[in-house]
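Quick check before the chapter quiz. The format below is the same one you will see on the exam, so make sure you can read both the input and the output lines.
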Amino acid sequence: MRAESPGHTDEQHRQKATFERRLRQLTSVVGDHPFWSTVERGDVVAARMALKRVPANGEA
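Here is the expected output.
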């Protein structure tokens, strides 16, 4: 584990921890979504990689 940066305030460390918890929660929501059971097992990795490239606003 890396040493904490001396340039961050206690509030910034709390915010970062909050963001990281939320990221883990959302990762679980996406990863455990029933949609993935509809994707052929051999295609799951490619489908997840394609999902990463979709713009947040849904436009292509």
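If your answer matched, good. The mean pLDDT is 88.
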